[in-house]
Design a protein that fits this description.
With 292 residues, the protein is an alpha+beta fold. The chain has three domains: 1-74, no CATH class; 94-162, no CATH class; 165-287, Glucose Permease (Domain IIA), CATH 2.70.70.10. It has helices at 25-90, 115-119, 132-162, and strands at 5-10, 19-24, 172-175, 178-181, 188-191, 194-197, 203-205, 210-217, 223-230, 233-243, 250-251, 256-260, 270-277, 280-282. Helix 1 (25-90) runs antiparallel to helix 3.
Length: 292
Amino acid sequence: MAQRLNTVIVVPHSQAKFFKFSFSTRALILTAIGCALVILLSVLAISFTGGAITRRSEVRLLRSQNKQLAAVNERLAKTISEVQAGSTSSRSRRPSWRLPPAWRRRPSRGQPGRPADRFGTGGDYDRVPETPEVLRIQGDWIAGQLAEVEKALAHREQVWAATPSIAPVMGLMTDGFGGRRDPVNGRHAFHRGLDISARRGTPVIAPADGVVVFTGRDGDLGRTIRIAHGLGYNTVYGHLDTISVEPGKEVRRGERIGAVGSSGRSTGPHLHYEVHEGGEAVNPLYYILDAY
């Protein structure tokens, strides 16, 4: 059977001759499919490029916020040391502030032997009482104020020790917190942490003081460690190659807990790192002050 052709004739108004184009139906269909593919690929390229630009701007914003948090922590540490120095020195000298109104005496004018009479100033004045009972009350009040300051300082130190604040491993951040396309099945999914790519065996450290509550295999995360830091903070480390701690062990900030690997559902050596606050996963970038 002869191939069926389609013919298009173009007749210009300014010229006498005309142009004739002949093509088969199959060629027309293939050309239309090719044009559709080109348009689809162009749209996808524009979408991916826009997403990459948005992610870069978010990373720049997070870096700026991390620098601001580092400056705030530095000022906080300086303030704590100044308050500690002041509270220590106050124990060794008599307080210079005025007593509460209930501890003051206002002697009447003209009483013999009083400073108002000797200097002729007259009127009422405030004077620190010197009876043992009032001095004891004054000492108890000062001790209570110092105890409150020490309690506040201890709480700040506890908050600092329990807050994840450093990167658990140094490497290249390959995926962030939030929605993404799953690298294995290509489906849209929510990523609960950061993926930090590094060589297999790279040390993984604890970002804050805490207690190890779980070690072992955990589904897609492979070899996993979970640490409870107190004050509602918990951290998770997945796809490990080796684990250096056991459940119940107390760890300190900067202590090695394992090594980077590719166990579980993974496409290559990297660390999956999560931070949980009050039982909910939060963006770990907000708690990394020394990198990214």
